[in-house]
Design a protein that fits this description.
Helix content is about 40%, strand content about 15%. The protein has about 230 residues and is an alpha/beta fold. It has a single domain, classed as Isochorismatase-like (Rossmann fold), CATH 3.40.50.850. The protein has a 6-stranded parallel beta sheet with strand order 3-2-1-4-5-6. Strand 5, helix 9 and strand 6 form a beta-alpha-beta unit.
Length: about 230
């Protein structure tokens, strides 16, 4: 991180930690290269398409954030982890039945929650810029949490992973659910804030603050790459 620049976890200070500061705990806590995996959550073509629909309806936040911030930074993380031969993982919404009966009730509800993304369809695929490679772990879920709905937590444990760098969408939904579950499983999470997105800026800021210093350490893409590259 550049000298004199405020760390992201202090820019997104959790309100509880204004009253009960943690000292320099999070300042010193860094991911360990041989114990860290990257997790990219739900950056799928369905949400690319949705961002265009929202933009055409007058809300361009998700479209701009995905194209200008999330995908470029997630790609930076992906490239770094691949170059360093570190563990790369993906979680993606995907059901097996064409009628969607295998979905969780949450993802079957009408309105925003309704998600029918059959595994193998175009809409269900991870975006082309971040397409998984052979040998990279991909878990499919019909739940918000990648831990609750899959073997993901076990897979990390079997591989000896202790730290997870998280990117993806949506910050307040599948990302937040996964971060909380991973934290409860005993993993330390580094949330790459500039590789995540909510539906609007207010939700993005507040959900990031809520998770920070309790369930994860909020970092920038640059911070986490520098911390890992220094080892």
């Amino acid at each position: 991180m550049e000298e004199g620049k405020t760390p992201y976890f202090r820019e997104f200070l959790n309100p509880y930690y204004e009253a009960y500061p943690e000292g320099d705990y999070w300042e010193k806590f860094k991911p360990l290269k041989d114990k860290t995996a990257l997790l990219i959550i739900d950056v799928q073509k369905h949400y690319q398409d949705m961002s265009i629909e929202l933009k055409n309806a007058g809300n361009s936040y998700l479209y701009d954030r995905l194209n200008d911030v999330v995908i470029p930074n997630a790609k930076r993380l992906l490239t770094f982890f691949r170059d360093q031969q570190m563990v790369v993982t993906f979680a993606a919404i995907g059901n097996q039945r064409a009628d969607g009966r295998d979905r969780s009730p949450t993802q079957a509800r009408p309105g925003w929650n309704y998600t029918l993304l059959r595994i193998g369809t175009r809409e269900q695929e991870v975006v082309d810029e971040l397409k998984p490679r052979e040998g990279e772990v991909v878990v499919y879920k019909t739940t918000d949490s990648a831990v609750n709905g899959t073997q993901y937590g076990h897979i990390l444990r079997w591989m000896g992973i202790e730290h997870v760098v998280v990117a993806g969408v949506f910050t307040d939904q599948c990302v937040a659910s996964t971060v909380r579950d991973l934290s409860d499983w005993g993993y330390t999470i580094f949330l790459a804030e500039d590789a995540t997105s909510a539906l609007n800026a207010d939700i993005q800021v507040w959900e990031t603050k809520i998770m920070n210093q309790i369930y994860c350490k909020v970092v920038s893409t640059e911070e986490v790459i520098q911390d890992l590259a220094a080892q």
